Amino acid sequence: MTTLSEAYRDHPIHLHHIIPLDFDSVQAVPDSHVWPQSDKYSPSSGVLLPSDEHFSIPIIDLMDPTAAARVRHACETWGAFQLTSHGVSSCLLEDVEHEARRLFSLPARQKMKALRLPSGATGYGLARISPFFNKFMWHEGFTIMGSSADHARELWPYEYKRFCDVMDNYQTKMKALAERLLLLILESLDISKEEMNYSSLVHASEKGACTALQLNNYPSCPNPNQAMGLAPHTDTSLFTILHQSDTMGLQIFQDGVGWVSVCPIANALVVNVGDLLHILSNARFHSVLHRAVVNQTQHRLSIAYFYGLPADSQVSPASKLVGSGQLPIYRSLMVKEYIKMKAEHLDKALSLIRI
Ligand SMILES: O=C(O)CCC(=O)C(=O)O
Ligand SMILES: [Fe+2]
């Protein structure tokens, strides 16, 4: 079966788009990291603080009997929501954040030992979207797919086990939560698991879902208005479950409104609709454009769990949602084909598969 790593292998990335800045060694934002102020990519462009509830993403309690309807509304209007009562313990969230902090606070030369390979998918480095932008992001990341042992051993030859145990446990809990959420999302689209007549989704929830864990670090920045933490993008996943530390930084784009900050809520997880769910829902749910901005005094961490379909499966608008007067908006294609298109064309990928 094709894995996500194999799907990325054909798209080597140049080393200067993998190696992060040694943030400890700079006093000012270097020109290579200064983003233009005048366009939509400007880090300070049109941001709304969610002081008004109309400008904040919905908060959904997973145990609420009306959760499916609320999920549908959130995914149709925002493409994102904050999830509470999700059953992932606050201890585990603290542990995963603590381990991520421990990793990113290592000296730069130590982190470089676990650098992602040019044609690799896992390890330490800049975000994969880096080559699409003229300027570099104020960010360093660490990607895990399955076991983190090989890279963790490079970072801590003798004491890597605690890191691996926490990451394994977190991925196990995230997978179980993602499977619950997938069923809720199908229910919200009025599709029962039995009606899911193509195998990929059933397949995904039962065995081969393509998943990845992404640890993100945004060091404090001498001039946050000039720098960009993570440039605007949509996730390729079905959906992403994100834990953010208690520093503001995540923003989502809402048409006609602009960039809206997603306030950290203790123990809530942010769920973002990704491209695959957008395709599957025949664009009823939208894959949310989001970015991360940086802070002058506090560094910020986030931990993203990407839940996708198996790379070898087919994705298309669900048959339940097309037919009765509704035409499919996207053609059917293999998930790995879509991953490849995204790696080559980023935000143009969806338009390339429109019918
Ligand atoms: O740091 C964040 O809040 C966003 C992270 C993100 O969008 C990603 O890892 O894809
Ligand atoms: Fe993202």
UniProtKB/TrEMBL annotation:
SUPFAM superfamilies: Clavaminate synthase-like (SSF51197). Coiled coil: none annotated. One of its GO terms (molecular function) is metal ion binding. Pfam families: 2OG-FeII_Oxy (PF03171), DIOX_N (PF14226). InterPro entries: DIOX_N (IPR026992), IPNS-like_FE2OG_OXY (IPR044861), IPNS-like_sf (IPR027443), Iron_ascorbate_oxido_reductase (IPR050231), Oxoglu/Fe-dep_dioxygenase_dom (IPR005123). Keywords: Dioxygenase, Iron, Metal-binding, Oxidoreductase. This is gibberellin 3beta-dioxygenase. It comes from Liquidambar formosana (Formosan gum).
